[in-house]
Design goal:
The protein is α/β, with parallel strands linked by helices and about 400 residues long. Helix content is about 35%, strand content about 15%. It folds into two domains: about 270 residues, 3-Layer(aba) Sandwich (Rossmann fold); about 80 residues, formyl-coa transferase, domain 3 (2-Layer Sandwich). The strands form three sheets. A six-stranded parallel sheet has the order 3-2-1-4-5-6. A three-stranded antiparallel sheet has the order 7-8-9, covered by helices on one side. Strands 10-11 form a two-stranded antiparallel sheet.
Length: about 400
């Protein structure tokens, strides 16, 4: 079948997470994505694991490979005058440019949107920076964990009696790419109708704020600040992750109304403590949540998480095993839906890649190429796509342009 973005060329000038994950969505759906890197300043993800056999190798990072499948990978030194010229020639053939540097980087290289429309008038350029292109924070470098702090996510993560906590990978890093990919799709649709490209300015800070809408509204309307509360919910009980039989085995349970509480009591066999009057209403259960949690865990600890989940779900109670990575990889539901694709990587060998959770019937996604090694596709891109002859290619390589 025809792929959704077949015929669209994307230059991926981004690094680390947000930018490459945005272009990954486009690559999944058929766009030709050419990823530009440099050996003089490695993408941070290439230095982050996990690594097969726990042996460091810039071409074997699990984080990097998962974010960059279906892409061609080249190296290019943009601090070399000829490097910028090569980049411009590539961009002149492209439909979309993705980058996530601070604004000063693109200005230094002469690769701003204002510069690029002169060589490709209908180009779509998306910048995914920490704080956006304007404002007092625009030039501040942004990283996922710092974004968790400034958005307020970290202040709500953790336990009431402990300092704010961070979860990893950085939560906001996984929000912004959804907004970025959707914005590019909207811009492509607009260009198809009008012939006009456009510039997309994405603030990771503002993307993260969207996940805290209720907390911000509660403060704006009621003057109430949300606080850390671990696994608990101010309106529901029992609500949390409870220890089960086995080593580090847990089940998540969320009882959100009295009907589910009745089902919960049936699943436990209507034991005596569930009939205590203080647990009859949700308000009472929330008020006595400390003791309730201990009683719930006195039941779950006797069962495996799979047994607890099955009994609760059969009674109409939301519950799920707190799966680890092995559980997810072996999950029958994920495997039935072909969530994981196996690809042959040049140095890792065959391993699993995640795929989009939304499956399009008319234009299905496809994974066909493992993530590239550093500079793996230099000759193909520079010779076959850009059209450099052998003498030009060798001369530029000798000058350090392709480092």
């Amino acid at each position: 079948m025809t792929k959704l973005l077949e015929g669209i060329t994307v230059i991926d000038l981004a690094w680390i997470g947000v930018g490459p994950m945005t272009s990954r969505y486009l690559a999944w759906h058929g766009a030709e994505v050419i990823r530009i890197e440099t050996s003089s300043r490695l993408d941070v993800l290439r230095t982050n694991g996990p690594f097969p056999g726990h042996v460091f190798d810039i071409n074997k990072s699990g984080m990097y490979t998962d974010n960059n499948c279906n892409k061609s990978g080249i190296t290019l030194n943009l601090n070399h005058p000829s490097g910028v010229d090569i980049a411009r020639r590539l961009i002149s053939r492209a439909d979309v440019l993705v980058e996530n540097f601070t604004p000063k980087a693109m200005k230094k290289w002469g690769l701003t949107y204002h510069d690029l429309v002169k060589i490709r008038p209908d180009i779509i350029m998306i910048s995914l920076t920490g704080h956006g292109q304007t404002g007092p924070y625009a030039m501040h470098p942004g990283a996922g964990f710092s974004m968790m702090g400034i958005t307020g996510i970290a202040n709500l993560t953790g336990w009431p009696d402990q300092p704010p906590g961070l979860i990893g990978p950085a939560y906001s890093d996984w929000i912004a790419p959804h907004y970025g990919a959707m914005a590019v799709m909207s811009a492509l649709r607009h260009r198809r109708r009008t012939g006009q490209g456009q510039y997309i300015d994405v603030s990771q800070y503002e993307c993260g704020i969207h996940s805290l809408g209720p907390a911000i509204m509660d403060w704006a309307v009621n003057g109430r600040l949300w606080e850390r509360q671990g696994d608990r919910d101010p309106a529901y009980a029992p609500h949390g992750v409870y220890r089960c039989r086995g080593d580090e085995r847990w089940v998540a349970i969320a009882v959100t109304n009295d009907r589910e509480w009745d089902g919960f009591c049936r699943a436990l066999g209507d034991v005596a403590w569930t009939k205590q009057p203080r647990f009859d209403t949700m308000r009472g259960r929330v008020r006595h949540v400390d003791e309730l949690d201990k009683l719930v865990e006195s039941w779950t600890i006797q069962l495996t998480p799979e047994q607890a989940m099955a009994r609760l779900q059969a009674a109409g109670v939301p519950a799920g095993v707190a799966q680890n990575s092995q559980d997810c990889r072996e999950d029958p539901q994920l495997n039935h839906r072909h969530h994981f694709w196996l690809l042959d990587h040049a140095t890792i060998g065959q391993h699993a890649y995640s795929t989009p959770s939304a499956k399009l019937s008319g234009t299905p996604h496809e994974l066909y190429k493992a993530a590239p090694l550093l500079g793996q596709d230099n000759e193909h891109v520079y010779r076959d796509i850009l059209g450099l002859n052998e003498e030009e290619f060798i001369a530029l390589a000798m000058e350090g342009v392709f480092e």
